[in-house]
């Protein structure tokens, strides 16, 4: 088990190093001059040259990459061209919106998907199974931003129960902050819940065909009891894989939803940084999201050993 953990950590670190190089050098080959973008087309060449010197753009590319890479270990992502503040401050400021949003959406997705998948698998081939999976397919097909607009019309415009957008900040209280995140979290969670429900159903049906399930049934265990006691735990391995991927998507893929609800999160920060060509912010946020994805995948890999004891052996 220890060797397995160390191996996964080493693979994660190597992946992060390769990703950092890819992110930095892809940004470097983009057309345009960041200093010229900041100052505008009317700025003189002398002014642009001074700003390039201040930003360190005159240094060799490899040296700038090594400086940026060593700064990452100190949580120093550089300084934003647009906001003139450290990128780490922007990440912390916006992360307190995106992280709770992703966690709430993941909780809703899991709370909906697991019972629905269990219900559909226990009624395989019946009308209830067909209707449930049909609704799940519709949930997958509907774009989340369109569903978000429907939520705004229903709960904000018509019923006037929830705010249509914006974020009051956590300083104003926990409930107002959560209230502002409810609709975005639902818009993010329902398509993911539909995917997870279908995966849960398929995994349960596959496990229910195993020999040990038939043995349990032969000893007198009912179909539903065998599914809950034996099949569900073994079916959780593919479910956990999808959960890890979904959390990474919910954390990094909120650009559209945060713009629909005007939330000051990481997704909106990336969008604004791209439109303003603030490459330092883009690089810092993207490498942080890559690190978050790698960390979540590592946690998911380690959770396999908790679900399946066979994976705990050194071999």
TrEMBL record:
Record localization: Cell membrane
SUPFAM superfamilies with a match to the protein in the record: MetI-like
Pfam families: BPD_transp_1, BPD_transp_1_N
Main location: membrane
Transmembrane regions listed in the UniProt entry: 9-30, 99-121, 133-158, 178-199, 235-257, 285-307
InterPro entries according to UniProt: BPD_transp_1_N (IPR045621), MetI-like (IPR000515), MetI-like_sf (IPR035906)
Gene3D superfamilies per the UniProt record, alphabetical: MetI-like
Domain ABC transmembrane type-1: 95-300
Protein keywords: Cell membrane, Membrane, Transmembrane, Transmembrane helix, Transport
Record-level GO cellular component terms: plasma membrane
Top-level lineage group: Bacteria
Family, per entry: Belongs to the binding-protein-dependent transport system permease family.
Protein name as catalogued: Peptide ABC transporter
Organism of provenance: Limoniibacter endophyticus
Source organism phylogeny: Bacteria, Pseudomonadati, Pseudomonadota, Alphaproteobacteria, Hyphomicrobiales
């Amino acid at each position: 088990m220890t060797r397995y953990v160390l191996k996964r950590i080493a693979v994660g670190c190597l992946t992060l190093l390769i990703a950092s190089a890819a992110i930095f050098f892809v940004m470097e080959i983009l057309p345009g001059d960041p200093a010229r973008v900041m100052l505008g087309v009317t700025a003189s060449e002398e002014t642009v040259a001074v700003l390039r010197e201040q930003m360190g753009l005159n240094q060799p590319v490899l040296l700038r990459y090594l400086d940026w890479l060593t700064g990452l270990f100190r949580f120093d992502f550089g300084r934003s061209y647009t906001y003139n503040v450290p990128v780490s401050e922007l990440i912390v400021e916006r992360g307190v919106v995106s992280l709770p949003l992703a966690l709430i959406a993941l909780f809703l997705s899991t709370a909906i998907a697991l019972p629905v998948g269990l219900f559909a698998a226990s009624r395989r081939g019946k009308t209830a199974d067909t209707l449930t999976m049909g609704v799940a397919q519709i949930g997958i097909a509907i774009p989340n931003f369109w569903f978000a607009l429907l939520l705004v019309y229903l709960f904000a415009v018509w019923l006037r129960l929830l705010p249509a957008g914006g974020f009051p900040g956590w300083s104003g209280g926990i409930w107002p902050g959560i209230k502002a995140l409810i609709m975005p979290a639902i818009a993010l969670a329902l398509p993911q819940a539909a995917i997870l429900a279908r995966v849960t159903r398929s995994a349960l049906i596959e496990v229910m065909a195993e020999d040990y399930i038939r043995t349990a049934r032969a000893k007198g265990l009912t179909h539903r009891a065998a599914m809950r006691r034996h099949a569900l735990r073994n079916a959780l391995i593919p479910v956990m894989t999808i959960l890890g991927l979904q959390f990474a998507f919910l954390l990094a893929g909120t650009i559209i939803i945060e713009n629909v609800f005007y939330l000051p999160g990481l997704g909106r920060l990336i969008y604004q940084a791209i439109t303003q060509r603030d490459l330092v912010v883009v690089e810092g946020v993207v490498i942080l999201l890559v690190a978050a994805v790698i960390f979540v995948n590592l946690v998911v890999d380690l959770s396999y050993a908790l679900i399946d004891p066979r994976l705990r052996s050194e071999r």
